[in-house]
Amino acid sequence: MKKLISMTLVALMVVFTMTGCKKSYTIIVKSNNDAWGTVTGSGTYKEGETVTISAVPADGYYFISWNDGDKSNPRQIVVSGNAEYIATFSDTPDGGGNDTPGIIHNAVTDIDGNHYDAVKIGDQVWMAENLRTTHYADGTAIPGGENEFLTDICYPDPYYCINSDLDAIACGYFYNWPAAMHGAASSNTVPSGVQGVCPNGWHLPSDAEWTILTDYVSSQSEYTCDGISNNIAKALASIEGWATHEYDCVPGNDQTSNNATGFGAVPAGVYWLGNYRGFGGSTSFWSSTEKVNGIENAAYGRSLFLFNPGVSQYDTLRSGGLSVRCVRD
């Protein structure tokens, strides 16, 4: 009898260990725009528990997908750790505007509450606007301010700056490479694995991911100019803001024919050696990839110029201020 009781107690202890002592995790469910749709499913759950999350669009709006690309709604997930799911709602059924297929309106919201459109180009989903957050996704403030960019001697401190002469919503903010990376190591993988300054569910693209974008656009005849594969700057450039240029197939010529991809690169210029430069004539974006065997403390980016039909791989000092575009995880 004692042996039977002992075995029963052991069995009860095993059951308790497998159920009552499991770890608990937090699941956060958000909407990219609370006016366009609501969500359910946030809470604290045990490891291994199956949870249903759902997205309910408001009248006249549509659910497109979750931030990881999954389109199931409602959706069941098995809890294995803390996680955040963001529902993307749109004002069009396909998530795009009538003029530019692939646009996802209000696809992501940063921690400061700024909303951004995104665009699907090939197999990638890119922000269609420049980042303009003053905090990392974990709530940490990024040092910086309006027209207060650190000088080059202050590298490697992270910093951002707002050029008060520009429309911040249209042009975004400028970040040095340490601010863009948020302490992460250089990466040239696909995906980069570097969230950096990007919102949850998005990451700073590697140089290799930029190459995937430009190679895809070059391979599509509708995005090239005069049938030349490397003439793709117009397809990525915004339809206004560029200075006028007489060359064919460049962003500064016939701007109304720019932006076939929906990427919408505005000529915000850069911060370089103590000054803002190039507004109206160029724009440059960071990657998560450092440059080795070259300029000390340099990293790669991509640049568009009003007079150049191509997209240039750009390497610059990490202390310079460039724009940031994020890619969906």
Account of the 3D structure:
The chain has 329 residues and is α+β, with helices and mostly antiparallel strands. It has two domains: 20-91, no CATH class; 117-329, no CATH class. It is built from five helices and 20 strands. The protein has helices at 2-19, 168-171, 177-181, 207-219, 233-236; strands at residues 24-31, 37-40, 43-46, 50-57, 62-66, 75-78, 83-90, 103-109, 115-121, 124-127, 144-146, 160-162, 174-175, 202-203, 270-272, 275-277, 282-291, 298-305, 312-317, 327-328. The strands form seven sheets. Strands 3-1-7-5 form a four-stranded mixed β-sheet, with no helix packed on it. Strands 2-4-6 form a three-stranded antiparallel β-sheet, with no helix packed on it. A three-stranded antiparallel β-sheet has the order 8-9-10. A hairpin with a 2-residue loop joins strand 15 and strand 16. The longest helix is centred in the first third of the chain and has 18 residues, at 2-19. The protein is globular. 43% of the residues are buried. Residues 1-19 have low confidence and may be disordered.
Condensed summary:
The protein is of the alpha+beta class. It is 13% helix and 31% strand.
Secondary-structure map with pairings?
Blueprint lengths: L1 H18 L4 E8 L5 E4 L2 E4 L3 E8 L4 E5 L8 E4 L4 E8 L12 E7 L5 E7 L2 E4 L16 E3 L13 E3 L5 H4 L2 E2 L1 H5 L20 E2 L3 H13 L13 H4 L33 E3 L2 E3 L4 E10 L6 E8 L6 E6 L9 E2 L1
Parallel strand pairs: 1-7, 11-12
Antiparallel strand pairs: 1-3, 2-4, 4-6, 5-7, 8-9, 9-10, 12-13, 14-20, 15-16, 17-18, 18-19
